[in-house]
Design a protein that fits this description.
The chain has strands at 8-11, 20-27, 30-39, 42-47, 72-73, 80-81, 100-101, 103-106, 109-112, 117-119. With 121 residues, the protein is mainly beta. The structure holds FE2/S2 (inorganic) cluster.
């Protein structure tokens, strides 16, 4: 029987290129929704809340990347974000950033390594 590491989010294979993996965590002591994404082979994590309004990026449909696969995109009013920096590249909220979380991929797992956050379940 294997014991799940307290900071393990999911097996790396759960986040394919341009895919997402939603998860819950405590961020600065409050329960929040977050999402892992993979872009150009690297995994990034953000609180799943648009900078425009308090909506999840994928609130209106299941895709989190735009149709080009180059940008994260909020499905509510279509703000596009740089997947690497989380910065809005759209006129709306230009330059505002998604809240990034520190994660690392090691031994085929993805781990939360952010002192502000903890996995809840
Ligand atoms: S709520 Fe995300 S673009 Fe408006």
């Amino acid at each position: 029987m294997s014991v799940k590491h307290p900071f393990a989010i999911c097996p790396a294979q759960q986040v394919p290129e341009l895919g997402k993996f939603p998860f819950e965590l405590l961020y600065r002591g409050s329960p929040r929704a977050a999402v892992l994404v993979r872009f150009q082979g690297e995994v990034y994590a953000y609180l799943n809340q648009c900078v425009h309004m308090p909506r999840a990026l994928d609130c209106e449909n299941s895709n989190i990347f735009d149709e080009t696969g180059r940008y994260l995109q909020c499905s509510m009013h279509s703000i596009c974000y740089d997947p690497i920096s989380g910065e809005s590249l759209s006129e709306i909220c230009l330059g505002k950033k998604l809240t990034a979380l520190k994660v690392k991929e090691q031994d085929d797992w993805i781990y939360l390594v952010d002192k502000r956050a903890a996995i809840t379940g």
